[in-house]
Write a structure and sequence with these properties.
353 residues, mainly alpha, two-stranded antiparallel ribbon, globular
């Protein structure tokens, strides 16, 4: 996708000389993010080769979600809270259904059956269930008791603290006390020189800065583009913004599955969802206290809550037996397509929150 790097100067030029052409600004900046996310994915995959699949999956999820976090922070500063919430939910849904589904489908087309450590996968699925509970309760209390905005804000901050603590505990579990569950079948390559590692780190840093710039341009065009195309901000956040934010994970997870490294593919897909729910969402709540026009709560619209719950339920089913094939991937992608059609045709079914 390196030729798509041409859209980086194109996006800068359109923003500078034709800012009123919102659709063109959105398209060029979105396409510019894709190759940058791809470079980020390749750099993290290189680091994974040298550090092991557990640490490599964590690094890929972290730097892959850097794009998601940057885009969300820019949208947060612009007061687009519905887009931010939709992108959080869309990232969780996209990683479970789209990224993991594409990885299982691609890997299954090359290998009849692939295997992964079910204990580690179930651990990630359980963390997703915990995250879903944290995201469901604010919306439930808002709908049942009519909680005030101030009360929702306090509840969201308190839940965010708990989610962050749970995320830190999950890191200790995966990287220290039960690291063997997440090592995978491919051992780290000890022959890596400092040059290759430092080069990968430099690429990650440069790609992060460039994605931040392109995200600033893209977010500014979201609302007028959605209006021009007749799309809801929720659809744009759940599918368009989330897919762009997950481009790095998508590319690396599929590549890992093709190489029969399903432990790494699962670590990237499920680990990224866990990180979005337990780290990115709480960080955005805290950031809204400083950057946004007001505090952002965790009371997601009912439609988004339902889709997250269904996706988490499917993750538990997929992670249970330690095996995957192309049919499982096709099933996950089918669910994602059903959700996309529903959000596109019935935007009013998912009210802004």
């Amino acid at each position: 996708m390196n030729w798509l790097l041409l859209f980086v100067p194109a996006a800068i030029g359109v923003e500078a000389f034709a800012p009123e052409r919102h659709l063109l600004v959105f398209v060029t900046s979105s396409l510019a993010i894709l190759p940058l996310a791809g470079w980020m994915g390749r750099a993290t995959e290189e680091l994974a080769e040298h550090l092991g699949e557990g640490v490599g999956g964590l690094l890929n999820a972290t730097f892959g979600n850097a794009a998601e976090l940057i885009i969300s922070l820019v949208a947060l500063r612009a007061g687009l809270y519905d887009v931010v919430k939709a992108s959080i939910a869309g990232s969780i849904i996209g990683n479970i259904l789209l990224v993991l589904g594409a990885a299982m489908l691609a890997g299954g087309m090359r290998h009849a059956e692939q295997h992964f450590n079910p204990a580690g996968a179930r651990s990630q699925a359980t963390m997703l269930t915990l995250a879903a509970i944290g995201l469901v309760l604010p919306a439930a209390f808002q709908s049942v008791s009519g909680t005030t905005a101030a009360g929702l804000g306090q509840l969201s901050v308190a839940i965010s603290v708990v989610l962050l603590l749970a995320y830190l505990l999950s890191l200790a579990y995966a990287l220290v006390t039960h690291r063997a569950l997440f090592v995978g079948s491919s051992a780290p390559q000890e022959s890596a020189g400092k040059g290759s590692v430092s080069r990968a780190v430099a690429i990650l840093a440069a790609a992060t800065v460039a994605i931040a710039w392109m995200s600033e341009i893209m977010v500014g065009a979201i609302e007028p583009t959605a209006l021009e195309l007749g799309l809801s901000n929720v659809f744009v956040g759940v599918f368009l913004v989330a897919i762009l934010g997950n481009a790095a994970e998508h590319a690396t997870a599929v590549t890992a599955a093709l190489k029969d490294r399903m432990d790494l593919a699962l670590s990237i897909a499920l680990g990224s969802s866990v990180q979005v729910a337990l780290f990115v969402a709480p960080i955005l709540v805290f950031a809204s206290l400083v950057l946004g026009p007001g505090p952002m709560n965790l009371a997601f619209p009912a439609g988004l809550v339902l889709t997250v719950l269904l996706s988490v339920l499917i993750a538990g089913q997929v992670a249970g037996d330690g095996r995957s094939d192309w049919l499982k991937g096709a099933q996950l992608l089918a669910v994602y397509l059903i959700l996309a059609i529903t959000f596109f045709l019935l935007p009013s079914a998912v009210p802004h929150g």
